[in-house]
């Protein structure tokens, strides 16, 4: 069993102080005295005890705020627990689905807000061959391996350090995934930066190196509802995706290898439309996904710098989220497996379609699909990926 302890005592670290401490000590550790008078503001990083795992490992929640945006992140799974942004009237609300306690995340979270690795999305039958050697991964999604296995990065405790870079305030998450963890080869050293810019954009930078050839596909699995977490269906959100093709799947949601045109299908979001407009169509791919749970092959492809790929608008609040990424694909998931059995931070129950995910990524099952962009990382090379979420109102 896990338990949550009181979070009334907080450590507040200004980002400037954190940067100075790191520079002075060379240890990557920030020092500050405790303060128990509530929230940190504008450049503060607030650290709270969130709970304790069964093995005694303590889990922290870090909260940073910059511009109009406030972000809370757990050291468990790198989870984005809350993301608060204002509506057209300046009223801030949490737009990220999640839980208020550690027990719920451990007991069976559907990857709410999680940092996903080593391999985001599915690998067919949990196997792949690299340099003539076959590797077997855990099977945790029907006949396939999903999101790095049954104890992927989403279920690991990360080290977390606050930082300031220019006008940005952020958190650096680190961990070392040992050779053979979840069946993957190579010792993988991972760094992920969560940054809030002065404008309130939420930026994620991923970086990884290995001592042996391996496959890597990192992403974040935040479920969004721009009307506010727990407010109901996202089917009236208007979505535009800059993708003229997607990867059809078989009944186990593994890509067939085809890059099919979205034209004339429920997957055509080249022009903005309501998410729910075509989601009840009797299209075989929609039936397989019980909604949409598909990779979109972005028209821009793999790029060195983030390029705009997605715009989502929520009509009632006026909130707008734009996404830019370096990645060649994005998995659009319409919360099809939310069944009313989980209650979120608002105390409200999540039902099908109450949140959506836009997971920037390389394509699913790429290690078994030579025609897809490669996910192989070799010693001497560095994996890098960046995704930026920008928020505004209209």
Task: Describe the structure in your own words.
There is one protein chain. The protein is 6% helix and 39% strand. With 394 residues, the chain is mostly beta strands. The chain has 3 helices and 31 strands. The chain starts with 9 loop residues before the first strand and ends with a strand.
Q: Hey, roughly how much beta strand do the residues contain?
A: 35-45%
The main sheet comes to: 9 strands, antiparallel
Number of strands: 31
What spatial order of strands do you see in the largest sheet? 13-14-15-16-31-25-24-19-22
In the predicted model, the low-confidence regions spanning at least 5 consecutive residues are 1-9, 11-41
Which of globular, elongated, flat, extended, rod-shaped describes the shape? Answer: globular
Number of helices: 3
Helix content range: under 10%
Whole-number radius of gyration? 20 Å
Please identify the structural class as seen in this structure. mainly beta
Compute the average pLDDT: 91
Cα(first) to Cα(last) distance is 45 Å
Describe the structure using short key phrases:
394 residues; mainly beta; nine-stranded antiparallel β-sheet; seven-stranded antiparallel β-sheet; 3 helices; disordered N terminus
């Amino acid at each position: 069993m896990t338990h949550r302890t009181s979070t009334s005592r907080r450590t507040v670290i200004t980002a400037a102080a954190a940067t100075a401490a790191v520079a002075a000590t060379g240890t990557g550790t920030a020092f500050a005295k405790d303060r128990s008078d509530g929230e940190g503001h504008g450049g503060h990083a607030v650290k709270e005890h969130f709970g304790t795992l069964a093995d005694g490992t303590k889990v922290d929640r870090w909260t940073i705020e910059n511009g109009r945006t406030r972000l809370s992140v757990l050291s468990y799974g790198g989870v984005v627990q809350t993301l608060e942004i204002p509506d057209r009237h300046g009223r801030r609300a949490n737009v990220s689905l999640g839980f208020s306690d550690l027990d719920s995340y451990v007991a069976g979270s559907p990857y709410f807000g999680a940092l996903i690795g080593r391999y985001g999305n599915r690998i067919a039958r949990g196997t792949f061959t690299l340099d003539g050697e076959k590797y077997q991964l855990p099977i945790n999604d029907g006949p396939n391996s999903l999101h790095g296995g049954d104890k992927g990065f989403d279920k690991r405790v990360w080290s977390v350090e606050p930082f300031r870079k220019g006008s940005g305030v952020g958190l650096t998450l680190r961990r070392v995934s040992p050779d053979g963890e979840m069946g993957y080869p190579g010792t993988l050293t991972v760094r992920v930066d969560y940054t809030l810019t002065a404008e309130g954009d939420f930026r994620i930078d991923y970086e990884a190196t290995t001592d042996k050839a391996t496959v890597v596909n990192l992403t974040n699995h935040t479920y969004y509802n721009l009307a506010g977490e727990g407010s109901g269906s996202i089917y009236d959100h208007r979505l535009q995706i800059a993708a003229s093709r997607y990867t059809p799947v078989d009944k186990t949601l593994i890509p067939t290898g085809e890059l099919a045109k979205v034209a004339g299908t429920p997957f055509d979001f080249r022009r903005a439309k309501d998410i729910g407009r075509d989601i009840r169509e009797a299209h075989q791919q929609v039936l397989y996904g019980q909604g949409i749970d598909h990779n979109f092959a972005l028209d821009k492809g793999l790029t060195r710098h983030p390029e705009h790929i997605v715009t989502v608008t929520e009509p009632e609040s006026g909130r707008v989220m734009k996404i830019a990424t370096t990645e060649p694909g994005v998995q659009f998931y319409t919360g099809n497996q939310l069944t009313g059995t989980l209650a979120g931070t608002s105390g409200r129950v999540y039902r099908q379609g109450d949140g959506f995910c836009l997971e920037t990524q390389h394509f699913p099952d790429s290690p078994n699909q030579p025609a897809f962009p490669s996910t192989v990382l070799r010693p001497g090379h560095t994996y890098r990926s960046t995704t930026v979420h920008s928020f505004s109102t209209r």
